[in-house]
Amino acid sequence: MPARVHAFLVVRPDGRTTAAPHLRRTLAALRQQSRPVDALTIVLCGESAGLSEIAASSGAESVITASASTGFAAATALASHRLNGDAVWLLAQDTAPEPDALRQLLGALELAPSVAFVAPKLVRWDDRSEIVSLGVTLTRLGRTVGLADGELDQGQHDARQDVLGADVRGLLVRADAWRQLDGLDPGLSGADEGLDLGIRARLAGSRVSIVPSALVATEGDGVAGLPAPTNARRRRRRAFATRAAELHRRLVYAHPAAVFALWLTILPIAVWRTAAHLVTKQPERVLPEWWAAVVALVRIPPVVRARRRIRRTRRASWLQLAALRISQSELRERLDDEADAEAATDSGVYVRRDLHFFTGGGAWLVLGALVLSVAAFTALLAWPVMGGGGLLPLRTTLTELWADAAFGRRQLGLDVVGPADPFATVLAIVGSLWPGDPSRALVLLWILALPLAAAGGWFAATRVTERAGLRLLGGALWALAPMFLAALTDGRPAAVILHLLLPWLFYTGSVAHRSWAAAGVASLLLAAVIACAPLLAPAVVALWVLALLLAIVVRSGRGTAQLVWTLVPTAVMAAPLVWWQGMAGQWWALVADPGLPWSGSQVGADVVGRSLLIAGLPSPDAGEWATMLEGVWVWWVPLLVAPIAVLALLAPLTPRWATGISLLVITALGIVTAFIAVGISVSVVQGQSVPLWPGPGLSLAWIGLVGGSLVALDAGFAPRMRSARVAAAVTAGLAITVLAVPQLTALARGAAELTNGPDSTLPAFIAAEGGDDPDVGTLVLTPQNGGGVAAAVVWGESETLSGQSTVEATRATPTPADSTVATLAVDLISTTGEGSVAELAARGIGFVVLAPAAPPESDAARAFRLDAVLALDQRNGLDNAGATPKGELWRVTGEVAERPGLPASAADLSRVILWANLVVLAIALLLAVPTRASRRAARRTPRIVGFGTSGPGAVEER
């Protein structure tokens, strides 16, 4: 019968000046015990003059000094060498027992000879009404489950006695059982030590019991047991220790025949659990998961020693522990109870309202936009492929379409190998929506563009207002944005897709700091937005930095990890192109517009052009009003934007001033970006420089203008001024509707750049050959109206939109391949030797096309074309296949070599880039998947963002 109690007290400096107060309280609690300890051994892990002084003056029988890395199990093993008593009491610097705790524990141990150790009820350091731990059990798969962790102490568990294990803090263990079991297992990394000790005690034929009347307060320093998850560092340490202990126990408890198989599954299971952590929005657990897996893989000797220890002391069957495990039904019921308790706790907090997409008119807005789109673009319904402006057909198969999005051989140029533009990935996704004919997906996108924009604008408006009418106004203003309609009529696919994505980026990005689900979606959308408009990258980075600063200053750092992640997919996706252009010293080329280089009609960098840009008009004809009115002075057209501009300027004067200022900052960044765009030319096509299109910057500015005007209308009018709000909203909506009339009727008036087709930019014979063999090479010669000829090599059935490359379009100096193409072109049209045709065949080029010059054809271009036809007809080895709508065609009659394959080094680099993108994409998608917990958390936060209150549903930012 235990009569002499020896307490082991483990102390470790924590560097936060809290160890000393905790130790003083614990020592004072020991001195106040109604049944005092008979001996006290203090193990000081790490050097600390203050703690050494406290320990020396404590009256301890001995003080042992160990290294700072010594864990609780190792520290108690050191103290065990001086064990002098019939029972061991395991304490740490942050475990302060109530005055009657030891008497209660010792009494329970004396009354039950079959009990190896007893455990107290652990309560919070500063609130004894909350249970920290009162017994621990296991699931069937070995997961640790606390029987009462985090519950309010209402005596509901005081009748419980037998348990599988308990928290190691405060355990009172018989000395003979302590020696027989060889103390705590140091291989558990500080977690589940009491549980493991209980399992080993029961296998040795003893029992484990809890004493709910014995209270021990604990703060959770992490000296013994798991640290309290009060900060990110402690949460990571807790996650690592828990998982490392679980893996260690799994290997230790397993049947000998299954140990090696379990060891082999550690890494595959880590992959699976990584995905699970991402789905459950706990990415902070990924690194601890992998670190624990690596530790479990290499730390074999502790497993061997632990298995040997169990084999030496085991007297009972593992089946006898089954009754003390928690069943799946009990676990499910417990989780449901926790969810109900959480819901009851949160019953007094904000619960967001429903979206009311259908009842609030959002669905009718989208339907109306669809009707308008069909009326404006009726001809597109019969077009299989769109052309004109910056449009080209897409590849005919998904394999080729996705190959264009990978690092490797490019469709244009002679033996060009390099990174694809990220926009090629966006096109591959769009084309995959119609697998049988990817080019038709672009046609459908054009038809659905207006309703999709209206839907995106409506949802974006839900972040700034709860009023149904203002949401409808926001969706309409976004769908009728002048830069968006200009992109539709001019045939600018990158700008169209960008405008459709921006409101969703605003919708998710504005709340990315709140949840990992929003951050995951926002990260994918941001990558797509920058792929469509690299010029927006500086503005986006500026907004990202501001958001990070706000999270650090206003939210004390909460949400910074989510904000940091939003930029990761963009950085990984753009990294190959950035590296490639950086190695060439062409940093400015990174902002080039993706897709087909085409200047079209756009404003200049003069005063008039910049004035139109401020009004959101990217073309010099003032939204095609000048074209429709045939030269009539249309100075008044930019004034149609004035109503929403004035409302946006008034937004900072409303109670929601912070939101208004933020939206004005977005507007300013967008306008500055547009100003910069019209002054930069980085792409060159057929010897002509192509300036950047300012539309992306104007789309960004339009978000700020529309959002600011909605904030002003929502918060800037008193309830009694409802009629004034309605009048202002109607005025703004009608003004933008009038502004959009010429562009909506452009296709019907024949003023749009859109055309029906072509299916291929090359003659039909080449298109047929290229459909079967994508490595068919064609040399395209295009006479220039200013004199000279442009030469290009096209691989496959047609020049395609996804095959365009800014690496080729922005190259400032010719490469050896360019020089080779130029030499071939000159030799073909100026000499009669046979070497040039043989060189064509050796390079894998089987066709030569003399394309027509840009209309109207000049005399110089006509003369050049006639001379070129004569020279090519006289060339041995070339067979004139006749004139086609795409130009004069010649076929190489000799044997044509195969196109050179991808070099081995480039293939390896391609695989690395592919896997990096797939991994990041998988992480983002897993984060974006909503869960029940994430949806429940979202309902507890306001839908609208920003500070200040006004109007229905306007609340403080969280």
Largest sheet: 9 strands, mixed
- Fraction of helical residues: 40-55%
In terms of DSSP E residues, the strand content is 5-15%
State the total count of DSSP E strands: 22
Low-confidence stretches: 344-348, 948-958
Mean pLDDT: 89
How far apart are the first and last residues' alpha carbons, in Å? 58 Å
Shape, please? elongated
Structural class: alpha+beta
CA gyration radius, whole angstroms = 37 Å
Tally the helices: what do you get?
Answer: 37
How would you sum up this structure, described in words?
With 958 residues, the protein is of the alpha+beta class. Helix content is 49%, strand content 12%. Helix 19 (493-509) packs antiparallel against helix 20 and helix 23 (568-583) runs antiparallel to helix 36 (904-928). The protein is elongated, with a radius of gyration of 37 Å. Residues 344-348 and 948-958 have low confidence and may be disordered.
Question: What is the compact description of this entry?
Answer:
The protein is α+β, with helices and mostly antiparallel strands. Strands 1, 2, 3, 4, 5, 6, 7, 10 and 11 form a 9-stranded mixed sheet that branches. A 5-stranded mixed sheet has the order 19-18-20-22-21, sandwiched between helices.
Describe the protein's topology.
Layout: E1 5-11, H1 19-31, E2 39-45, H2 49-56, E3 62-66, H3 72-80, E4 87-92, E5 95-97, H4 101-111, E6 115-124, E7 131-133, E8 136-138, E9 144-146, E10 172-174, H5 175-181, H6 193-203, E11 207-218, H7 232-253, H8 259-264, H9 266-279, H10 286-298, H11 300-313, H12 328-345, H13 362-376, E12 386-387, H14 398-403, E13 408-409, E14 417-418, H15 422-432, H16 438-461, H17 468-479, H18 482-490, H19 493-509, H20 516-532, H21 537-553, H22 560-566, H23 568-583, H24 607-614, H25 625-628, H26 642-650, H27 657-677, E15 681-685, E16 688-691, H28 695-715, H29 722-744, H30 746-749, E17 755-756, H31 764-772, E18 777-783, E19 789-795, H32 806-809, H33 816-830, H34 835-842, E20 845-850, H35 859-873, E21 878-884, E22 887-892, H36 904-928, H37 932-939
Helix pairs in contact: 7-10, 7-11, 9-10, 9-36, 13-16, 15-16, 15-20, 16-17, 16-19, 17-28, 17-29, 18-28, 18-29, 19-20, 19-28, 20-22, 20-23, 20-36, 23-36, 26-28, 27-28, 33-34
